[in-house]
Specification:
This protein is mostly helical. It has 29 helices and no strands. α17 runs parallel beside α19 and α23 runs antiparallel to α24. This is Similar to ankyrin 2,3/unc44. Keywords: ANK repeat, Repeat. InterPro entries: Ankyrin_rpt, Ankyrin_rpt-contain_sf, Multifunctional_ANK_Repeat. It comes from Ectocarpus siliculosus.
Length: 504
């Protein structure tokens, strides 16, 4: 975009021609708009001689507003006395009360109100003077408007914001206090669907939280997701807000619509300071009937399990120090060790193991954390768990070992890690199938080659009497199974001593 100095340089000397062009060719509406804009600019710059010339040329509406902008009460009063409407709008659609409200000129606001100005007159964006005063934090002006008849009920602008919401959004505690004194609903929903308490909590606005609650806002109000303000503060990591809400009486044992407590949300997001704030409050006032540290709803994860699942080792360590159950296995839950293994969170696994996590603990499918690491191809987790003493030959339902699962789900890195640690390639599941059967049925030549390299027997048959060669591609659909894959697998198995392949 060309800068203003360049524009001036290009047009310098042509000013008279531009003015002549405007007067000769512009429509009446265009000329009126141009004169009005010129008058407003002259007023803003206090160019009195130019103001007079423009008014003589037909420009209207700004001398009054200039007086308002300058806070010249005498001129405003005189202009109104001479017949100007106290609600006359300028070219932007602003009435004098909007201008005075934005400036925080309480004396001028009172003068305009006493002269009959409408305190609820909306501008082009449906903002009343109270909206404007609230937006810019002018508490005394807001009070004057309210005393002069401004509506305290949530009159909404074009963005569905009330004066109270604007005051909260911009952190104007004094304005909120004035609105509360005049009966504003502290539990009114904001334009986002949150309550104002939720909004203040999400932004860590401590003074506003205290002001809203003092004005009647309920700590138990919930948003559309069933979250209280404490849930929101914990989720956002607004630790100061968490402390204040707890001190004001917010309940840390409430669940939101997703079945998560405030502590659970803080753990999920790795919000350590919020976690510490909740734990400190619980330490000062233990909730005997509901252990906040291990609190869970139905089948949802505990706070510790949420932290482990999302890889927050620092939070996991803190939770364990405050009494979190490292091996909670109540059905239908997965222990924290399993959840960390799913995501390959090695740092979390180390913390859990250092705090005595049971490496042989199983989930509802009778699978260990090592099974999970294999299923999700987490080779680093496989290595750590095996070195820490996890049973590499542990069997889950259907007698699957971790190696079975790695081969079944085409997890090549996990397969390599398990084989490197000595996993038995000949272990059979309840159907008599070895890991080689699983790899062959997936037509996974790389895994088949790995297994053969570590001694897998191509002649081993399943309970149904099938060798690995017999089940090539059985777990593949037509798009996955290609002729070259079959040929490659057959070649591998033949070279390993299979002999002729039965293609039937």
């Amino acid at each position: 975009m060309i800068g203003r100095d360049q524009q001036h340089a290009f047009l310098r000397g042509f000013e008279p021609e531009l003015v002549k062009l405007m007067f000769d060719t512009a429509t009446a509406e265009q000329l009126e708009a141009w004169l009005r804009l010129s008058l407003e600019l002259a007023a803003d710059n206090k160019h009195l001689e130019l103001i007079s010339r423009l008014e003589n040329a037909g420009a209207v509406g700004s001398r009054f507003h200039l007086a308002v902008r300058q806070g010249n009460g005498m001129l405003v009063a005189d202009t109104i006395k001479r017949g100007e409407s106290p609600d006359a709008r300028d070219g932007n659609g602003d009435a004098p009360l909007h201008i005075a409200g934005a400036r925080g000129d309480v004396d001028l606001v009172r003068l305009l109100l006493s002269s009959g100005a409408d305190p609820n007159l909306p501008d082009r964006k449906q903002r009343t003077p109270l909206h404007v005063a609230a937006r810019y934090g002018h508490a005394e002006t807001a009070g004057a408007l309210l005393s002069g008849g401004a509506w305290v009920s949530p009159f909404l602008d074009s963005e569905s914001c009330s004066p109270l919401e604007l005051a909260v959004r911009h952190g104007h505690v004094d304005v909120v206090a004035v609105l509360a004194k005049h009966g504003a609903d502290m539990d009114a929903a904001a334009s986002t669907g949150l309550t104002l308490l939720h909004l203040a909590a999400s932004e860590d606005m401590v003074d506003l939280l205290q002001c809203l609650v003092a004005g009647g806002a309920s700590l138990e109000s919930r948003d559309t997701h069933g979250s209280t303000a404490l849930h929101i503060a914990a989720e956002k990591g607004a630790a100061a807000a968490v402390k204040v809400l707890l001190a004001l009486g917010a309940r840390p044992c409430e669940f939101n619509g997703d079945g998560l407590s405030p502590l659970g949300l803080a753990c999920k997001g790795g919000r350590l300071q919020a976690v510490l704030a909740i734990l400190a409050a619980n330490h000062r006032n233990p909730i005997i009937e509901n252990d906040v540290v291990n609190l869970r709803f139905g089948g949802e994860p505990s706070p510790l399990e949420l932290a482990a699942c999302h890889g927050h080792a620092h939070v996991v360590r803190t939770m364990l120090r405050h009494g979190a159950d490292v091996d909670s296995t109540d059905c239908p839950y997965q222990p924290a060790l399993h959840r960390a293994a799913d995501g390959g969170h090695v740092d979390v696994l180390k913390v859990l193991i250092d705090h005595g996590a049971n490496l042989d603990a199983v989930d509802t499918d009778a699978e260990t954390a090592l099974h999970h690491a294999a299923t999700f191809d987490q080779s680093g987790a496989v290595d750590l768990l095996v070195r820490a003493g996890a049973n590499i030959e542990a069997v889950g339902e259907e007698l699957y070992t971790p190696l079975h699962l790695a081969c079944r789900f085409r997890k090549r890195e996990a397969t390599r890690a398990l084989l490197a640690h000595g996993a038995n390639v000949q272990t059979a599941d309840e159907n008599g199938c070895t890991p080689l059967h699983s790899a062959a049925s997936n037509a996974d030549a790389q895994v088949v080659e790995l297994l053969l390299r570590f001694g897998a027997d191509t002649a081993t048959t399943s309970a149904a009497g099938s060798t690995a060669a017999d089940v090539i591609g059985h777990n593949c659909d037509g798009e996955e199974l290609q002729a070259e894959n079959i040929e490659q697998l057959e070649s591998l198995l033949i070279c390993a001593g299979l002999g002729d392949i039965n293609n039937d």
